[in-house]
């Protein structure tokens, strides 16, 4: 059972303590993120791109999200586990949205869900919160709207961003992810909202930060956005390990007597 709760995150904001959030999609990496002290682990639908090798997040299904969320929930001892509602699991119908959100808690062990959108999803947020499901909102550059945005573009409409932020907070979201927006706007939203903001490509003034695990660990095999940083190079380490294994097998050096029965 996670010891970080949504109210704990609210207290962290109050105390000016930065919230560390990260994505994870399976048991070993979620265990390591948890052991390293992450406060929040998001099972993001970014798994469509970094795990499944898809072009965008749109094809990811509820079934796939629940499958990965189960692994992460099993691993997290302390961090709050948030399951990401995939495209079309909450946009079409509020009752369906509540049912899908509830499945993350009921069948996958998550403590909360995340959905993308501002003013357009407040009805769904309210209904989920009424059903006892904590909701994290996500505004700004929302990857599920990649086609509507004409690509992954920084969002700069300050009035709209402020309105979206206030409306998701009023609807009952416990936190809001701010993605791909100017730092000055993120700073204003963070100052005006009582709930914690978690930034990704939104500058240093957010109450916390989130990065996609594959980007920060050097496992991103494609495009690295400007806002991310590689804190470790697991791609190089992984290639080194696979190559050393291949060399040892080819040369007959592995397995040695100590590995044989
Ligand atoms: O899907 C995801 O991983 C996300 C984060 C990048 C916020 O939405």
Domain count, please report it. 2
List unreliable stretches of 5+ residues.
none
CATH superfamily of the largest domain: Phosphoenolpyruvate-binding domains
Number of strands: 8
Total helices: the number is 11
User: Ions, cofactors, ligands: which are bound?
Assistant: 3-methyl-2-oxobutanoic acid
| Proportion of residues in helical segments | 40-55%
Alpha-carbon Rg, integer: 19 Å
Helix-strand pattern: HEHEHHEHEHEHHEHEEHH
Task: Explain how this protein is built.
By secondary structure, this protein is of the alpha/beta class. It folds into two domains: 6-230, Phosphoenolpyruvate-binding domains (TIM Barrel, Alpha-Beta Barrel); 233-261, no CATH class. The protein is built from eleven helices and eight strands. It has an eight-stranded parallel β-barrel with strand order 1-2-3-4-5-6-7-8, surrounded by seven helices. Helix 5 links the parallel strand 3 (80-84) and strand 4. Helix 2 crosses helix 4 (62-75), helix 5 (94-106) packs across helix 6 (122-130) and helix 8 runs parallel beside helix 9 (183-192). The longest helix is centred in the last third of the chain and has 18 residues, at 234-251. The protein is globular and about 65 Å long. It binds 3-methyl-2-oxobutanoic acid (KIV).
């Amino acid at each position: 059972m996670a010891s970080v709760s949504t109210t704990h995150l609210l207290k962290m904001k109050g105390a000016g303590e930065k919230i560390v959030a990260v994505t994870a999609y399976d048991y070993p990496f979620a265990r390591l993120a948890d052991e390293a002290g992450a406060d929040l682990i998001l099972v993001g639908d970014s798994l469509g791109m970094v795990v499944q090798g898809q072009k965008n997040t749109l094809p990811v299904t509820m079934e796939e999200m629940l499958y990965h969320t189960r692994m992460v929930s099993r691993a997290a001892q302390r961090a709050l586990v948030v399951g990401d509602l995939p495209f079309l699991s909450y946009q079409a119908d509020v009752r369906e949205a509540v049912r899908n959100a509830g499945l993350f808690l009921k069948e996958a062990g998550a403590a909360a869900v995340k959905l993308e959108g501002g003013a357009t999803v407040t009805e769904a947020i309210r209904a989920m919160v009424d059903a006892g499901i904590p909701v994290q909102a996500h505004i700004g550059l929302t990857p599920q709207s990649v086609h509507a945005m004409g690509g992954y573009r920084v969002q700069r409409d300050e009035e709209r961003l402020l309105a979206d932020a206030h409306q998701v907070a009023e609807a009952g979201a416990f936190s809001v992810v701010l993605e791909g927006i100017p730092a000055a706007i993120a700073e204003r939203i963070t100052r005006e909202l009582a709930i914690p903001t978690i930034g990704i490509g939104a500058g240093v003034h957010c109450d916390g930060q989130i990065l996609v695990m594959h980007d920060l660990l050097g496992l991103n095999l494609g495009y690295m956005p400007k806002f991310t940083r590689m804190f470790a190079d697991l791609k190089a380490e992984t290639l080194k390990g696979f190559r050393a294994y291949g060399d040892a097998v080819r040369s007959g050096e592995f397995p040695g007597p100590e590995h044989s029965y």
